């Protein structure tokens, strides 16, 4: 019932839920209203849960997905960096195991005079969060004001920080709701969730790293391609130059999984070293970002000549961190060795991600603390030959009671055989976009 003081609501949530349940298209006005009314608390959590499930089962078409995204952007503030005097470019990864790419990529691209507004999240489940990784650097602060973010982008270039409460608030609530209602892995809901935050963040160009494989949301190439092309179209429609790379997440990326361990590896890449796959992907994504903002340069150069490292040091310092202080290490380690001579032919990304999480690198609930030093160091990677007794990987944790369960969970996660595996051609499987 409405009183003279209240504007009547133009729609009823139940009608919208029923329409999607019965496989009808939602009208633009219905989508705008339901997202806005949910943000205002007029649409109840249980109603949005029912609608999310109806969308999960019956989908949204391209136009509905685009409108849903715009409605989520409009639920909060849209940042604008047009007055910065520099182009802006960002990267988003759909999340993987050992994915420390943002750490080296952000300063690398910034070293070419591009501002990188990287609003990141914390890890939930088996994929690590960039903020958790950076917080292993003593003094480093994830929480900074928009004003400070703008200053760092102007003076330093790269900034990695927590998204403010007013950035796509509808997505913040909806994502938490999806997490507890079995509606996370749904292409239109993932695409609109990711893109609403990236559009609201105010970047001019965006490259998406869409992971494919056991350690990723998308287990096969076809669904990864659909997610990538949906996101690319949404970005282009919103005026953000967007491309995507589909990349291999069947095995962990690089040789480390876990917060401080991954920071250490990213610093190796910035020093011109580091594992081949991490370097390849960092350079491929940097190339996409630089091309999108019309900077004609080979990003591999700045990794070799120290410019990217200088940019990293400035970026860490600007957020209170000490780039020269040592990184935390776990109090206990356990080494696993090969039981025979042979080729390492398989390391399962999901199993190693879950193992690292159980060692203490990740959290089960969003308020849980993480251990900075916990994780896994891979001494041997797929395609390498090992002798019996040679170390394959080490587990790191502050809580040794966790070793037995983790070791049991890793029993089928790797294979050493007498047959040499086919070499992997590239970590980048495919490119989507103009
Ligand atoms: N990351 C997001 O931000 N949203 C999703 O829906 C999935 C991954």
From TrEMBL:
It comes from the Bacteria. One of its GO terms (molecular function) is thymidine phosphorylase activity. Coiled coil: none annotated. InterPro entries: Glycosyl_Trfase_fam3, Glycosyl_Trfase_fam3_N_dom, Glycosyl_Trfase_fam3_N_dom_sf, Nuc_phospho_transferase, PYNP-like_C_sf, PYNP_C, Pyrmidine_PPas_bac/euk, Pyrmidine_PPase_CS. Keywords: Glycosyltransferase, Transferase. Its EC number is 2.4.2.4. Pfam families: Glycos_trans_3N, Glycos_transf_3, PYNP_C. GO terms for cellular component: cytosol. Residues 343-417 form the Pyrimidine nucleoside phosphorylase C-terminal domain. The keyword Protein biosynthesis does not apply. GO terms for biological process: pyrimidine nucleobase metabolic process; pyrimidine nucleoside metabolic process. Homodimer. Belongs to the thymidine/pyrimidine-nucleoside phosphorylase family. This is Pyrimidine-nucleoside phosphorylase.
